[in-house]
Specification:
heterodimer, A: 245 residues, alpha+beta, 5-stranded antiparallel β-sheet, B: 174 residues, 7-stranded antiparallel β-sheet, 7 strands
Chain lengths: 245, 174
């Protein structure tokens, strides 16, 4: 009854039960942490040009390039159980048959913002330095952190930001489509428990996202007068050069 | 060890075997019940690669839910490449279709520079939500699944564990 094997078994069983209970408690406790996220998203420039998906492709598709301003305060999303925040800006536009097919959506920009307690990883967002400060003090470097200098995780302030990915439709045509929307989304990755996505409505102590949307229309196809600088995508400071899978 | 086995009556031996079989079948039925509840062929998966770091590391356990056919951009889905049996956990970055047409998704791992177009089968540019996707990640437990990665990378561990479990069942006479 009291041999070593039984004791080891009992201790291990108890350890597993306690670990499970603590994990469940942590996962449920996030409901008690109040949230009040807010953001303002503004479209600065949108152009539609013809391009190729790869340099060796023969088909020419229409690509849309946008530039946007983002001012977000998502610090309340970071609680004790937040490992990281996946922030994304998606462009959604109506499909070829809006009555039967829902709008298409594509991510144009994303950022992984870790909590301060998460172990360091190269694939995390590096917040660009503010442009206004750059002109006043040209020697000021960007903070190297996923938030602006003096801020905390969840504060994002971008001006005239180029996207990371280009917008294209599966049919190859995107010019002159109306009713498009740029919107901000997030995905909170916990240390343990359920993943949560953007909530627009308030649930208990969690208030919905205020703002974070910008409506626009895709302009007609631009000819040759487009500036090359406007077409560039910007990958950002983070290093994610892993090969697929 | 065989001495203790030989001293068992046939009825006690049969009871032991039945006990063992009950434990196995309960575990199996729990798994299958969860599969039906989540409507997924594999409702709990272990992350095998580092393509979603820093969100998911190798060895993390993911809980899947397959009843939400309206997969949104930004959700993390697990899918099988057509013709292969390797589940891949990546994030949806584009969606087209839905409604009367099949919902098509493009995925990309957070830690990859390019999207998954190279990973899909030949001639396939997008995933079909109803056919290729096993489920969408709704819950996450870190590290717990590393045991299964060890078991698959060191096959002798599997045999060792089975022998150990058989020994403990036989040697305990409760």
């Amino acid at each position: 009854m009291h041999n070593t094997l039984t004791r080891v078994q009992n201790v291990f069983g108890f350890f597993t039960s306690v670990a499970f209970a603590v994990a469940a408690g942590i996962a449920m406790s996030v409901l008690l942490s109040p949230q009040a996220p807010s953001a303002s998203l503004e479209l600065k420039n949108v152009q539609v040009v013809k391009g190729r998906p790869h340099y060796y492709s023969t088909k020419r598709e229409e690509y849309a390039h946008v530039k946007f301003d983002l001012d977000a305060d998502l610090t309340s999303l970071f609680n004790w159980n937040t490992k990281q925040l996946y922030l994304s800006i998606t462009a959604s536009y109506p499909s070829s048959d809006p009555s039967t097919i829902p709008p298409s959506e594509a991510v144009i920009w994303d950022a992984i913002i870790p909590s301060d307690y998460a172990p360091l990883h190269p694939n995390t967002y590096i917040h660009p330095a503010s442009k206004a400060k750059k002109s006043a003090k040209p020697k000021k470097k960007e903070s190297g952190k996923p938030y602006p200098a003096g801020g905390s995780p969840g504060i994002v302030r971008l001006e005239n930001q180029k996207p990371k990915y280009q917008i294209t439709d599966v049919s190859g045509k995107i010019a002159k489509r109306g009713n498009a929307t740029l919107s901000l989304h997030w995905n909170v990755q916990p240390w343990v428990g359920a993943l949560v996505w953007t909530n627009k409505n308030s649930i208990g102590r969690w208030q919905g996202l205020q703002g974070g949307e910008a409506k626009f229309d895709f302009p007609p196809l631009k000819g040759t007068e487009v500036k090359k600088d406007d077409l560039k995508t910007e990958t950002g400071g983070e290093r994610n050069r892993g090969s697929p899978a | 060890m065989f001495g203790s086995l030989a001293s068992l009556q046939p009825r006690q031996l049969a009871a032991q075997v039945l006990n063992f079989a009950l434990v196995l079948s309960t575990a199996f039925m729990l798994w299958k019940g969860l599969s039906v509840f989540a409507d997924s062929s594999s409702p709990i998966v272990v992350v095998l690669s580092g393509s979603m770091e820093p969100a998911f590391q190798r060895g993390d356990l993911l809980f899947l839910w397959n009843r939400g056919q309206e997969t949104q951009v930004g959700e993390v889905v697990v899918y099988n490449v057509r013709g292969k049996d390797i589940p891949i956990v990546h994030r949806v970055i584009q969606r087209f279709g839905g409604g009367s047409t099949p919902l098509q998704l493009l995925t990309k791992g957070d830690n990859n520079a390019a999207d998954d177009t190279e990973l899909y089968a030949r001639g396939q540019s997008y995933l079909d939500r109803s056919q290729d996707v096993i489920g969408s990640v709704v819950g996450y437990v870190p590290f717990v699944g590393y045991v299964t990665i060890l078991l698959s990378e060191y096959p002798w561990l599997k045999t060792a564990m089975l022998v150990f479990m058989a020994l403990t069942v036989v040697l305990q006479r409760e």
